[in-house]
Write a structure and sequence with these properties.
By secondary structure, this protein is an alpha+beta fold. It has two helices and six strands; from the N terminus they run βαβββββα. Helix 1 (about 10-25) packs parallel to helix 2 (about 120-145). The radius of gyration is 17 Å and the shape is globular.
Length: about 150
Amino acid sequence: MVKDLITDTMKKNLIITFITTLLLCLISCGEVLEDVSFGVTPDSGNVYEAGKEVYFNFSGNPDYIVTGTVEQAWLREVSATELATSMRATYRLAPRNGRVVKETLNSSQNRSGIPSGGAAEEIMLNSMRELVQPMARKIKAIVDGK
C-alpha cells in the first residue's frame, strides 16, 4: 500500500529550506563587487495557508531577483523497508534589464533499508539537494554571462 507521508507543515518547511539553500548557494558563488541596496518584506495582506500564494514587496536596486516554487514534494512508503520521493521545483531569474529565465527541475529517489526515524528526512533532503545544486550552477552561469 502506498501511503502519502508528507504534511502541510513539512511542505512549508521544505519550501523554506529550498529557498534558504538556493540563496546560500548563490551567496557562496562569488565575491561581492558592490553594495546593493535591496529589501524584501511580506505583503500585509498575506494569508499563510498551504496552496495559497504569498506576496512580497521588493525595494532597492538588485541586478537580479531569484524566486522559486516547490511545486511537488512527495514522500511515499512503498513498503516497510522502501521509501520513494518525487520533487519538482521551478525557479525564475529576473535581471534588472532583460528577459526572465524560467526553468523547472525534477528529482526522484528510491531508498531501501532498515526503517529508522531519520530515513524520511534524509531522503527528502537528498532529493532537495539534487534540485538545488544544478539550479544554483545554472543561475550562476547566467549571472556570470557564460
